[in-house]
Amino acid sequence: MKIVNLLVVIITGMVLAYGTMDMPDWGDPDSPASLHVSPGYISDAVEKTATPNIVTAVLADYRGYDTLGETAVIFSAGMACILLLRRKRKK
Amino acid sequence: MLDFIIGKYNYWIYIVLMMIGFYAMIGKKNLVKKIIGMNIFQTSIILFYVSTAYKKGGATLPIIEHAHGHSEHASHAIEASSYINPLPHVLMLTAIVVMVATLGVALAIVLKIYRRYNTLEEDEILKAIK
Prior knowledge:
Radius of gyration of chain B: 22 Å
Distance between the termini of chain A: 48 Å
Helix content of chain A: 55-70%
CATH architecture of chain B: Orthogonal Bundle
Helix content of chain B: over 70%
Structural class of chain B: mainly alpha
Oligomer: heterodimer
Largest interface: A-B, 48 and 56 residues
Shape of chain A: flat
Number of domains of chain B: 1
């Protein structure tokens, strides 16, 4: 059974490594990820949001509703932990 | 060949890390070990995304220099090639939040299972359920 698990893991890893053959090189400035959307954010962020830190500008300004949903995720996780871990009150 | 290895080796490191986590998820019997494996898996994905943000050639952190201050500094154009890609960082910040939430809930459920069955081994729990 251990052998089967190891075999599955190795085959999956080899498939993923084969997939990296088509990936852009590490740190390539002309990779598709850094050419399509992000130059717009880098050049417009200060003008539109007056925030020098672009990560903050995107997180709290462009994607403000996403961050609001994130706090909902944290809240529901905390509530789930409290509901699971509380001890029942003795009557 | 050497250029190929230098360009791709970071992806291979993340694949190795991800497969360690995957093996822990499917191979281990202890529930806490499975959860830590899931955490390693998610961490490797986060490292992968952050590594795709990097640009060679003098790019710095995505914080615009001279953004505050007088207008003659702010007037010159901002080169996109001199700052690394900010979007993977933002998305992984969200992913870290989800990761922490899933880890907390999973550990709470495991603690509940331990209080009920007094064991964390998967086969013993299955035997107790039957």
